[in-house]
């Protein structure tokens, strides 16, 4: 499957008997679900998964009804990094294929106006760690372990790890986590700002669902502007960024959601946003 042949998002979750894909993707109302589905391999990334991830992200980006994306994974681990068995005999083409699919999908997710929320459990390592960093918000189950792991196989990183990690934890701590490749637990990940919330494993889907539904009811276009401003703030000087803030605020001021939000505030009622 290639991005150019990305399927339309269905509004029905795949039936268990049909869940043979490495990446499951569907839309429930305004919520797009993207779920990794190689639990027997701890959702390690192989070429098929990378390609299906890219295609799923393209389908999400093409669906105007999506107002939030929920990234999750089947089984006891979110993602144990890349599938190294494919790289043993001929590493270069295998690595190129994995990186092309994953990076293509990550670019699409980063460009969405819709917030991207990940719920993670078990192991979050290698490419899974970078993918998690690329999401806007993350909820983790208690007991989750996080690790960069790349130096353990003699490699540098991919999946945006070196872009996201220094921005979240600072350069010195990012270098420590990367160079030493020591696993950290969920409590430490929360302390460092790698995740937003830690919840009991049994409550992971429930708590993520609550957050996702809240975001799905929000002002999607405004969220998109906020995401872009935050993500570009490190590369702009103050004058440039003030101009960008002004431009984006004025763009929001022309939307239906802005009119609804101002009216609701002045009328002392709850706003009903449509994402437009």
Strand order of the largest sheet: 1-2-3-5-7-10
**What coarse outline follows from CA principal-axis ratios?**
globular
Helix content percent band: 40-55%
- Total helical elements: 10
List the main descriptive attributes of the protein structure presented here.
10 strands, four-stranded mixed sheet, six-stranded mixed sheet, alpha/beta, 276 residues
Structure description:
With 276 residues, this protein is of the alpha/beta class. Helix content is 44%, strand content 15%. The protein contains 10 helices and 10 strands. The strands form 2 sheets. The protein has a 6-stranded mixed sheet with strand order 1-2-3-5-7-10, with helices on both faces. A 4-stranded mixed sheet has the order 4-6-8-9.
Give a quick summary of the entry.
This protein is α/β, with parallel strands linked by helices and 276 residues long. The chain has helices at residues 47-62, 91-110, 127-134, 161-169, 171-180, 186-192, 204-216, 220-232, 238-252, 256-266, and strands at residues 23-28, 31-36, 68-73, 79-80, 116-120, 123-125, 137-141, 145-147, 184-185, 197-199. It has a six-stranded mixed sheet with strand order 1-2-3-5-7-10, with helices on both faces. A four-stranded mixed sheet has the order 4-6-8-9.
